[in-house]
Amino acid sequence: MITMDLLKKYDTAFFEKDLSVFSIFLEKRQICQFLKYYELLIEKNKVMNLTAITEYEEVIKKHFVDSLSIASCIDLSKYFTLIDVGTGAGFPGIPLKIAFPNLKITLLDSLKKRVDFLNEVIEQLELTEIEAVHGRAEDFAKPDKLRETYDICVSRAVANLATLSEYCIPFVKVGGVFGPYKSEKVTEELEIGKKAVNLLGCRLVSRKDFLLPNSDINRTIVLFQKEKETPKKFPRKAGLPSKEPLH
Predict the structure, then answer these.
(1) How many CB atoms lie within 10 A of CB 130?
(2) pTM recorded for the entire structure
């Protein structure tokens, strides 16, 4: 159960100030959901490797605020279906769900222990219309699974753009958007990954470079729009997108 007692334990003023930069204004219950998420993350991190970032203010800035920064590029106030590929400890999918309850979200991760943790978070935070799925992107992007069923695909995975595109773009329906979270070093990735993105059915529509609020942390959000169906041969079988990126 989410209680308001958490508000007495933590200073959240800087969190709310940061989010206001993106025109995100949370209710007290939503702030408590973030605080509960933080506590669950830190507790579970003692027994499994979920994050190297554990200090309260750093988790807020580098995980929560960062996850929500895409709201400066996409109007998330509408009803959208969204998949977070390679979600790990739930970033950016769970912060997006807390801040935008209208989103219907799928969290996809290949490690069952992480998916078990995500299911615990979903239950403890009393979130609805969100599911955690255990599996590889290469398998779930098949026609009889989740292929081309989402309005938005996001990922904070560290894979290069050519590889990440092959994992993610097949999930996006025609007219939808693929939005990877990147650093300011994305320029070279964009050049190398241009052919892959086009081959998979997308085109670049925007790029936004910025600093996370009240920090010197560089972030780039790149948006690609899906213009045509992804050829059926993609994604290739497990392992190939990372070993032999399209270019």
Answers:
(1) 24
(2) 0.96
